[in-house]
Structure formats: structure tokens, C-alpha cells
Amino acid sequence: MKQFYKILKTCIFVCLLLFFLACDKKQEKYKLINSIQNNILNFYKKQLTSSASFLDSINQTSNLIHKKELYLKARKKFKLSEPILAHTDKHNYKSLNAPNLLIVKGEEHMDTKVLKPFGFQLIEEVLYESKLDTLKLKQLLNVTSARLKLILNNLNLNLKDYHIIWILREQIVRIATTGITGFDSPVLNQSLLESSHTYETLKNLLYLCKRKFSSKTILDSILMSFENAQNALNTPFDDFDRFNFIKQYIDPQLKLLLAVQNDWKVRFPFEMALSNTMSSLFDASALNMEHFYDRQNDTSQLKAKEVLGKELFNDVSLSKNYDMSCASCHIERLAFTDGKRVFDQRQIRNTPTLTYAAYQKAFFMDSRAGSLEGQVIGVVKNHAEFNTSLDTLVTRVLKNSSYRVRMDTLYQNKRISYNIRHAIASYIRTLNTFKSKFDKNIRGEEHNLTSNERKGFNIFMGKALCATCHFPPLFNGTVPPNYSDTEMEAIGSPNLAQNKLSDDLGRFQLFKTNERKHFFKTPTIRNIAKTAPYMHNGTYKNLKEVVDFYNKGGGIGLGFYLNNQTLPFDNLMLSDTEVNNLVSFMQTLTD
User: Fold this and answer.
1) What angle in degrees, to the nearest 10, is found between the helix axes of 120-127 and 64-88?
2) DSSP secondary structure string for all residues of 307-357
3) What dihedral angle (degrees, nearest 10) is formed by the CA atoms of 325, 326, 330, 336?
4) Contacts with 410 (C-beta within 8 Å, 6 or more apart), sequence order
């Protein structure tokens, strides 16, 4: 009996010991998490506080040179905060880094508000004008500083491991897609230096999280890659080799980040626009298609729905007079365009490609539809297209026994109209392969990109500023890395036949908002070699004409009055060789 109690006491002691050891481990873990959280928070607060302080100091000096020095310090601190701010407070980041364009909100709800932008880009433009507008500068400084202080007063960071991985991934992609293009440094053109600043923050984040690593080799490797990338960025803007930078630094960093998240044993609660397993920028798996879906989408039996959608896409019985299908205007061999200026004079606008169309948040050239399913409604009801109703569409589809059976088996609901549209949209979502010559070369699968084609990509991403509107890797207007907005621009496309600005007022025709005159959605340039003629009215026959239009400065450069043109330059001053190289690059984007 005594032996039994002795054993029992020993067991109890061991259990208590293990319990307290476990508690100690939990406490150590919580202490570590809290320590990292506090260090990240303190770093973040320091950048925001310093940025606001430097902005306030600009108003306190009358010396213009000193004002500019203080602005550069404020901007640097803002850029150091960018990776964390852009992830944790997207809307405030967007406002603080907004271009000098009026912001239009609420059109769809007939509650239109036109807001004046503010932030660092506008301060930069005013500060470096030939004649300083001190009153305007003071106002911009006060508003921008106040917004930074508002953010500081409402900080509530609670970053888990997956948040830190997301911050790192988003900033790596942001550097590659907007940072090295001059997207947000229109006057000083110091985007390469500012990209280096943001790398400094990524390094700091990893240093602060170094106790999370079980592999020092992985930590050292990704830190070394960031360091080497910073050295590479120390290059004049027009001379920077963006192709090599993405291939040598961005893609390897994305792969190293996968090693980091495996080392930390990170579990993600959900997927966002950038895939949690993204390993290359120019790859079909880089972006999550689900991010661009209509919220009602049911992805079960998706392959069968895509097959059904392709049949519906090619079926003329869906139109009023049985004479038109989606494929009538969107011809596969022409990258799903029709090769015409406008379709048989029934339309006033050029037929856009459907390749990569799924990667958008707005549809039609005036962005009037919010989903591919919504776009189909516009085609069905348009008098120049199917010219019928959704009820008739349903009746026609259900008359076909094959369609009817599959509608019953693939969709477990009664929303027949939506299901028809969903099937067609599901097919359209398959029309993107990321298998162009350029994609294969930048991924290292092929090595046949010519020197001129590579130079053309670097011009596209740099001197020509094309990528400030056509963002890689999609080369459309959906803004990375969050992919929540698809931009519209007013570039001043002409009517060459009449030698004047195009009469089509674009977005303005929907809601009569003056600030939206001549605004059109930025399309993809993937497969552009197959989609001539170009612009919303098909006014240009070839790519050299298009590049010449931009080279001259858009509509204003051609002498047309356009007070809201959004192009970030007067003219590009591209040489004939640079124009040819730019065209050569665009031709490599054919799938």
C-alpha cells in the first residue's frame, strides 16, 4: 500500500511539473509574441510620427530649399511605413499616396461626390512648381499631417504570423508592379530609391521576428536577397534593368518567402488576391481567381460548367433573331476580338479582348458592370447585340434538352437566369494561360527573348511610363497588390477621320458626371498583337501609331482640349529605336 501511494505521489508530482512547464512555455510564447508585436508597433509609430513632424516643420520655414529637404525626409518616413500601413489601413494609405486626380464616389447610387485629393504626391507637385503656391502647400501639409496623426491616434496592430507574411509578400509585389515604375513619384522620379526604403522596412520586420525562425539559413538568405536588391536599385531610372530585377530578385524572394512561412509553420485563414503559395509574379497561380468572382459564385463541378458555358458562348439561339452569339464579336483566333474598328456599325466602340478579362473589378469600357455575370446582362439587353430579355434567354436555353438537363444537375437552385450567365462567365474565366513568350522567358523556362524585346519591356516599365496604368503581370488597370480597383483614364483618344477629339464621352454618358468626361477603363495589353485596331473607337490601325500617340502626349499633345487628361507626362521623347523596341516587347505577350 505504501508503495502504491509512493508511486501515486510521484505521478502527481510529474504531472504537476509537466503542467507548470507547459504553462511556462505558453507564457514564454506569449511574451515572445507580445515582444515582437510591441517592437513592430514602436517601429511603425516612429515612422508615422516622424513623417507628420517633418510635414509640420515645412510650414515653419520660409526657406524653399529647407522645405524641400524636410519634404524628402517626410516622404522617406512615409515610405518606411508603407508595407505596414498599406496592409493594415488600405484606404488611408491610398488617400495619402493618391495622384493629383479628382476622386469621384457614389455615381452608381446617384449620390455623386467629387473629392479633392491630398497627400504626398500633391505636396511634391506643388513644392516643385516653378512658382510656389504657399497657401495651397500649407493646406495640403495640414491635411496630410492630420491624417497621419489620425492613424496614430487609432493604432491597434494585432499582427499574427500570417499577417506578417502577407505584409512581406504584398510589398515585394508592390515594388515589382508599381514601385519600380515611377507610379507614385511623378515629379522627382525617385521611385527606385523609395523602393529601397521599403526593403529596409522588410528587413527590419524580419530582424524583429528572428526568434520565430528555426532555420538561420532561411533568414540569412532572404535578408541577403533584400540587401542585394537594394544595391541593384541604386541605378539611374532610365537605365534600370527591370526584367533582370524581377527575374533575379522578385521571383526568388517570393520563393524564399514560401520557405519562411513553412519554417514558421504558418496557417492562413483564407486566401486574398495574391496566392498564399505564390512563387512567381508572371504565373497563372500567382493570383486567386476567386478574388475576382461574383460573391454568388458556386465553384462546384466547375469544369462541367465551363464546358456548358463555351457552348452557350457560341450559340446564336440566345439572340433575338438567332443570328448572333458571343463568338460573333469575340473570335478566338483574334484573341476574342473581331478585327474591326467597331462591330458592323451596330456599335460605337471597339470590341475588347476577353483574354484575361476575368482579372478585373469593372467591365465594359465605361466600367458600368461589376462582374462578368453582370456584363452578360448588358449584352443580352443591348439593342445592338442580342436585343432580347433575360426571360427570353431562359426560355431559349430550357428549350434545349441538353442545356436543361445540365442546368438541373450542375446548379442546385432555381436561379436559371443567373446560372446561364455564370456558365458563360466561367468559360471566359478560362481564357488566360500566362504562356506567352515573355512569361516563359521571365520565369526562366525559355531563353529566346531578344535584346530588343527585353529593352522594350524595360522601356514599358520605365521611361515610357506605360506600367503606371497597365500594371504587370496582368498589364491592365486593376491595381496591384490588392486588386480591388480597376482604374479608368482620360487619355484623349482622337477621331482621326475628323481630326478631332473622339465624341464618345465614355463614363460620363452613364451618370453625367463632368469629371468623368472621356474616361475609359484601362484594358489589358496581353495579346495586343492580335487585337487591332486600337483604342475605344478603333482609330489606330497598328501599335506604332498607338505608341506615337502616347509619345506625343496623348490628346493634349495632339492639340485637343482636355482639361482632365490623366497621362502623367507632356510627352515621352522616345526615339524611333525605343518605339520599335516597345512594340517588339508588346508582341511577346501573345499566348
Assistant:
1) 160
2) HHHHHHHT-GGGSTTS---HHHHSBGGGTSB-SSSSSTTT-SSPPPP-TTT
3) -130
4) 301, 304, 305, 308, 419, 423
Residue 75 burial (CB count, 10 A) = 24
- The CATH number, out of the four listed (3.50.50.60, 1.10.760.10, 3.40.50.150, 3.30.870.10), of the domain defined by the range 290-428: 1.10.760.10
Q: Is 265 exposed, middle or buried (0-12, 13-18, 19+ CB in 10 A)?
A: exposed
pLDDT exceeds 80 at position 12: no
The domains of the chain are located at: 1-159, 161-268, 290-428, 437-587
Helix 161-177 to helix 251-263 angle (10° resolution) is 180
For 556, other C-beta atoms within 10 Å of its C-beta total 18
DSSP 369: B
User: What CA–CA distance (Å, rounded) separates 218 from 280?
Assistant: 18
Counting every residue written for the chain, the total comes to 591
CATH T-level assignment (fold) for domain 437-587: Cytochrome Bc1 Complex; Chain D, domain 2 (1.10.760)
pLDDT, tens digit (0-9, with 9 covering 90-100), for 405-448 = 999 999 987 899 999 999 999 999 999 999 999 999 999 999 99
Neighbours of 115 (CB within 10 A): 11
The H-or-E segment that residue 495 falls in is strand 494-495
Q: CB burial class (10 A; 0-12, 13-18, 19+) of residue 224?
A: exposed
Same CATH topology for 290-428 and 437-587: the answer is yes
DSSP 381-447: H-TTTT-S-HHHHHHHHHHSHHHHHHHHHH--SS-HHHHHHHHHHHHHTT-----SHHHHHHTTS--
- Its pTM stands at 0.93
Lowest-confidence region among 14-23, 104-113, 444-453, 490-499:
14-23
Q: Compute the distance between CA of residue 485 and CA of residue 478 in angstroms, rounded to an integer.
A: 6
pLDDT, one tens digit per residue, over 291-349 is 998 777 778 999 999 999 999 999 999 999 999 999 999 999 999 999 999 887 678 89
Name which of 301, 305, 475 is nearest 373 in CA terms.
Answer: 305
3-state secondary structure of 478: strand
| Cell 443580352 -> residue | 380
**Which distant-in-sequence residues (6+ apart) come within 8 Å of 68 by Cβ?**
127, 128
- Per-residue cell: 253: 524572394
